[in-house]
Amino acid sequence: MGIVSDYHLHTSFSEDSDTPMEDMIQAAIDLGLKEICFTEHLDLDYPKDCGSFLLDLDAYTDRLLSLRKTYGKVICIRLGLEMGMQAHLGETYARIAGQYPFDFLIASQHLVEGADPYYPKFWEGRREEQVYRSYFESILANLSSMPQFDTLGHLDYIVRYGPNQNRFYSYEAYRDVIDPILLYLIRNGKCLEVNAAGLKYGLGHPNPEETVLRRYRQLGGTRITIGSDAHRPEHIAYDFPQVQALLLQLGFTHYTVFQNRIPAELPLGD
To answer: I want to staple 43 with a disulfide (CB 3.0 to 4.6 A). Which of 53, 65, 157, 231 is the partner?
Structure first.
């Protein structure tokens, strides 16, 4: 059967996309997907000099529910949200989660040392390995303040943007902080996202990479979600066959989808 659901998609409701939601839906239908979940960005208290990742939640929800009525007999469309983690925002995100009919919530760390590593200027005067460690430490510190989430997004997102990307990065160098992150997810019944955008960015691996996914399995982790992190139609379900083969090789047998925040398992293989 393969992977028939993409659980990380952005449209023009997110600051970093200009794609209409309907275009993404049509592309997913053309690919033969059975289910998609839009997860628009909401990064509260995002640095003002880097743009705004606020979200018109009412307009977003209304548009999705309207398109669900139009396309619901062809493809299942879920309402999701990608929340930018910061320790002081947990209560605010919890309140928002209760105000809208979300199916699925991603918690993602986009900032490190109060700034976004996406921008090359961020790296000036900073040592790559120290930033990577600070990033992982921020995830660990923020997780407990944000109980309202279903999956941890793109765990090693930071390596997409480092000056050397993942050339000198390894799980082993940061296992003392990555392992506690993985154990937190397992012990609290959360999922770990397998984000295919690392392949799109030329890293040769998803986020997180294979060594982290293997360690997650070794520690007892079985619950994963799968998303392309697409901001354009051509990137929906990006390299999903490669992702599927990798996950089966690592011993995963199922992936998780959600309805009304309630998980269900789908088989990875036929």
So the answer is: 53
Q: Which helix (H) or strand (E) element contains residue 213?
A: helix 210-218
Sign of CA dihedral 86, 89, 91, 93: negative
Residue 77 corresponds to which tokens in the numbers above?
A: 């469309």
Please give the Cα distance from 148 to 89 (Å, whole number).
11
**Are the C-beta atoms of residues 11 and 19 closer than 8 Å to each other?**
yes
Distance CA 81, CA 37 (A): 9
| Tokens linked to 35 | 């289910």
Would you say the pTM of this structure is higher than 0.85? yes
Per-residue confidence (pLDDT) for residue 53, from 0 to 100: 87
For residues 186 and 221, the answer to whether their CB atoms sit within 8 Å is yes
Going by C-alpha positions, the residue among 177, 197, 200, 258 that lies closest to residue 224 is: 258
Asked whether 98 and 120 are in contact (CB, 8 A), the reply is no
- The token pair that represents 87 in the structure block: 């320790």
User: What DSSP letter does each residue of 34-59 carry, written as one string?
Assistant: SEEEEEEEEBTT--GGG--B---HHH
Alpha-carbon gap, residue 76 to 7, rounded angstroms:
11
Instruction: Determine the 3-state secondary structure of 140 from DSSP.
Output: helix
What distance in Å separates the CA atoms of residue 212 and residue 135, rounded to the nearest whole number? 15
CA dist list (Å): 107 to 42, 100, 192, 216: 10, 16, 10, 18
Sign for the pseudo-dihedral over CA of 62, 83, 193, 14: positive
**Structure confidence by residue, pLDDT tens digits, 132-185:** 999 999 999 999 888 899 999 999 999 999 999 999 999 999 999 999 999 999
Write down the pLDDT at residue 48: 74
Amino acid at the residue 142: N
Amino acid found at 14: S
